[in-house]
Amino acid sequence: MPNPTYTSRLSLPYARHTLTTLDIHTRTSPSPLPQTYNLIFIHGGAFRDPLDTSTSLLPALPALFRNRNIAHIASVNYRLSPYPSHPTHPSSEEEEERNVIWPRHIEDVREAVEWLGCGMGGEGWRGREWLLVGHSVGATMAMMLTLRDDTDGKAEGMWGIETAPLVGLKGVVCIAGIYNFAACRDAHEESRAFYEGFILGAFGPEGEGGWERGNVKREVEGGRGLRDGVEVVIVGLSDGDEAVEMEQGWGILEALSKREGEGKVRAVILLGNHEELVSGGVGVARCVDEAFHQLVKA
Predict the structure, then answer these.
(1) Is the dihedral of CA 179, 183, 189, 191 positive or negative?
(2) N or C: which end of the chain has fewer CB within 10 A?
(3) What are residue 169's phi and psi, to 5 degrees?
(4) For 168-211, how does the pLDDT look when each residue is reduced to its tens digit (9 = 90+)?
(5) Residue 39 forms beta bridges with which residues?
(6) What are the residues facing 134 on neighbouring strands?
(7) For the residues 14-19, what does the mean pLDDT come to?
(8) Within 10 A of 76 (CB to CB), how many other CB atoms are there?
């Protein structure tokens, strides 16, 4: 198969903040298959790293577009929590967009999804079925968005305000995601201060219950299931991941399998360290290919 070609539009604003931008990549060749989908990618970076952005997906695009079920890919930026100790780009208290707390991050992602669904990114997005793809805390947010909303008429749920239904969402691909932040911290005792720092910056003090707002595993075990229309969940995990232990992936797989049955939920075992799972292209492409294998055969 010849190498795929695509066009890219970078840093398109979807909201009024400097960091609320996204990139859109559109296949030009070879032509897509009749049954096509779009992807929306959410980057990681511990909710706070200014160097982990939408462009982290760029090296993976050739591998992703080899799958002819993909027509368009969007990669989303969002506002960040404080990181005053960053070695090269420390945040300051004056930077409003780098001093947000949960659930502002996921609300930005929701706004980006709504912006795309309204056709603001081009007619290729309006009315099309799509998949969420996330890495690290981006995978955390992708999983959250794939589960049923909990607002039930309230102004804000524990995962933010849902202003519009996620029409057309067919599946989620979560790579090296965190689904229980306290457990992740405890599994990395040698780096405890790092994990305490970014989790505290995003969710507030553990003793005040803020960390439980990020406990996706507990929510699934408590009965929160997949949204209507979601047909596939892919969880990618690697034994070489130094930042997120494999138990995070196995735990959410077990909880979802008990809740939804094993037919919709798949594990994909990957090779590489935490960043290589996306930057190398192979890992994220393998996971996406498996998602389409399940979707298209269904």
Answers:
(1) positive
(2) N
(3) -70, 120
(4) 999 999 999 999 999 999 999 999 999 999 999 999 999 998 99
(5) 73, 131
(6) 42, 174
(7) 97
(8) 27
Residue 174 phi/psi, 5-degree rounding, is -115, 120
Q: Cβ distance 30 to 62 under 8 Å?
A: no
257 burial (CB, 10 Å; 0-12 / 13-18 / 19+) is middle
pLDDT tens-digit map of 237-272: 999 999 999 999 999 999 999 999 889 999 999 999
Q: What are phi and psi of 188, to 5 degrees?
A: -125, 65
- CA–CA dist 210, 158 (Å, integer): 9
The token pair at 265 is 């939920």
Q: Write down how long the chain is.
A: 298
pLDDT in tens, 132-178: 999 999 999 999 999 998 655 444 578 988 888 899 999 999 999 99
Residue in the structure block whose two tokens are 């949960």? 102
Those residues whose C-beta lies under 8 Å from the C-beta of residue 146, and which sit 6 or more positions away, are 132, 169, 171, 172, 226, 227, 230, 233
32-71 burial, b if ≥16 CB within 10 A, otherwise e?
beeebbbbbbbbbbbbbbbebbbebbbebbebbbbbbbbb
